[in-house]
Amino acid sequence: MTEGAGGGIDDRADGAGGAPPAAAAWVPPAGWTPPGGWAPPPPGAPPAPGWNGPGPGAADGPAPVGFPAALGGGDVPLGMQLAGGAAPADRGAAGMWLLFGVFGFLAGQILAGIFIVVAAAVTGHAHSLAAIAKLSEPPTWYIVSTLAGLWAGFLGAPWLASRVRGTRSLVRDVGLRFRWIDLLGIAIGFGGQLLVGLIYIPISHHVHDFNQKFDAPSQKLTGGSHGVGFAVIALLTVVGAPFFEELFFRGLLLRALARLFGTWGRWVGPTLAIVISGVLFGLAHAESLQLIGLATFGIILSLVSYRTGRLGMNMVSHATFNLVAVVATLHAGSGILF
Question: 49 and 67 in contact (C-beta within 8 Å)?
């Protein structure tokens, strides 16, 4: 994948001519199972663009045309994966993935409400639930119940999409893979917090009580917890949120949108998928003042996932971003949580 003339994303194979030379499709040895969800094209079928990567091992020499670069350990951009038949396999399947996403999001809201009612009954707060819901800093059990419900929907949607219109392997279909290079996500997470802070400098001068309003979502999530309770919320925020939200927004929605828009205008389609999935990520948090920051970093995360074709670096970036915000909240600073 190269940069287009306008600075956009280009899914065409690199090199003169933009297409690999004609050759027979690669045939795997008996009993060989492709890692990461890749499979060779059928015998006689033309190779997908960009599928002329390294072979299974250095001793094997150059790989035949049709061998996907991902099998040699390198990253394959999402556009090339989709061109090679990765899930969702077609626009019809992509539409179903988006439908599962809508149902999963709504189911998460409903489950969150159910879990809260159950937790309130168990803790003896059933009669004061309405008042608790209006608190600026709800108790730990309320926050945990809310997150559990939301994340059940975020996990269920991609799982169902994989089972019904995928390969039935969630790990394979959403690119749930990690590599050592994903540690670069630490820098992306820190840089994201810095970028968001810079974006809000001119905005802060035009919003009354900006700091209080900007920090309200983080305070609501962590401010009512102390000691062990705060540790639990922090762990869920730094580990749980990046995992479940990346599965849903980058694993499910981004891939579905990328399949729907294809490679319109070389880079227009991929750019639309990246921007729309990032904006949806921001809107899903239902925070008006924080929307710009949420959408901006959501777009960055979508770009990272599109280029790597995986979720590993996203999750590390997301976790680092949230960790910075948790530490800032702990020290009475400011931070925006995803």
Answer: no
Q: What is the SS3 assignment for the chain?
A: CEECCCCCEECCCCCCCCCCCCCCCCCCCCCCCCHHHCCCCCCCCCCCCCCCCCCCCHHHCCCCCCCCHHHHCCCCCHHHHHHCCCCCCCHHHHHHHHHHHHHHHHHHHHHHHHHHHHHHHHHCCHHHHHHHHCCCCCCHHHHHHHHHHHHHHHHHHHHHHHHHHCCCCHHHHHCCCCCHHHHHHHHHHHHHHHHHHHHHHHHHCCCCCHHHHHHHHHHHHHCCCCCHHHHHHHHHHHHHHHHHHHHHHHHHHHHHHHHHHCCCCCCHHHHHHHHHHHHHHHHHCCCCCCHHHHHHHHHHHHHHHHHHCCCHHHHHHHHHHHHHHHHHHHCCCCCCCC
Would you place residue 100 in the very low, low, confident or very high pLDDT band (cuts 50, 70, 90)?
very high
Whether 70 and 76 have beta carbons less than 8 Å apart is answered as: yes
| Phi, psi torsion values for 334, nearest 5 degrees | -125, 150
The pLDDT assigned to 226 comes to 74
What is the rounded distance in angstroms from the CA atom of residue 126 to the CA atom of residue 219?
Answer: 23
List pLDDT tens digits, range 212-260: 877 777 777 776 667 788 889 889 999 999 999 999 999 999 999 999 9
User: Residue 161 and residue 153: Cα distance in Å, rounded?
Assistant: 12
Asked if residue 101 lies in contact with residue 157, where contact means CB atoms within 8 angstroms, the answer is yes
CA 44 vs CA 26, 40, 47: distances in Å: 10, 11, 9
User: Nearest 5°: CA angle at 93, between 88 and 97?
Assistant: 80
Mean pLDDT of 82-96: 93
